[in-house]
Amino acid sequence: MTDDDGSSDIMEGIDDMEWDESKAVHVSVSKLGEYKNERQLRAFAKKYADQFVAGQKITIGSTGNTVLISQESVDHSFHIAKRHTDTFLSITELPELLKKATKLAEGKDKHGRSFVRAMEIYQTPVEIRGKKYIAEMVILHGIAEHPVLGTARVLRHQKLKD
C-alpha cells in the first residue's frame, strides 16, 4: 500500500495487528443525526470532526505520548478517505482511536520533507456499521518551528474478513 504520508516504507515487513475486541473502537453514526444518503452522512461526519475532533490533544495509551489533532490533520484525513464513508466515520472517533492505539513502527519520512523529523505508525481495531477494520494512523513529528509537530492523521483502513 502507498499513501500520501509515506508510511509504506517503514511498515515493510511488519504485520498488521489482529482484531482485539478489548481494544476495539465502535463508531456510532447516531451522534451525527438523521441523514438521507452516504454523501450527506460524509458531510455530517466532516462537520462533526471540524467541531469536536480538531484541536484536541490526546495521550496515546500504549506510549504515553501526547499528540495534537490539528485542523490540517482532520482535513488531510478526509482528503485521503476520498469517498470511503466508513473511513470518514472513523475520523469522528480519532481521539478514541488514538487513546487505544498500538504503535507498530517508527521511521523517517520517505518524502524527505525538511519539517518532518520522524513518523510513527499506529493501528487500532474499529467497528463501523457492523464491519470490522484495522484503522491505521500516522503521527508526524516535526521540527519545533513547524505546526505539523506531533500531529495525527488517519491514513487508511484494512477491512477484516468476517
Q: Could you describe the 3D structure shown?
A:
Strands 1, 4, 5, 6 and 7 form a 5-stranded mixed beta sheet that branches. Strands 2-3 form a two-stranded antiparallel ribbon. By secondary structure, it is an alpha+beta fold. Helix content is 27%, strand content 30%. β6 (131-142) and β7 (151-159) form a beta hairpin. α2 runs parallel beside α4 (85-91) and α3 (71-81) packs antiparallel against α4 (85-91). The protein is globular and about 45 Å long. The chain has helices spanning 8-11, 38-52, 71-81, 85-91, 94-99, and strands at 25-27, 57-59, 66-68, 102-107, 116-128, 131-142, 151-159. It has one domain (8-159). The longest helix has 15 residues, at 38-52.
Overall mean pLDDT? 78
> Helix and strand succession?
HEHEEHHHEEEE
Outline type: globular
Work out the strand percent.
25-35%
Enumerate how many helices there are, as a single number: 5
Described by its quaternary structure, the protein is single chain
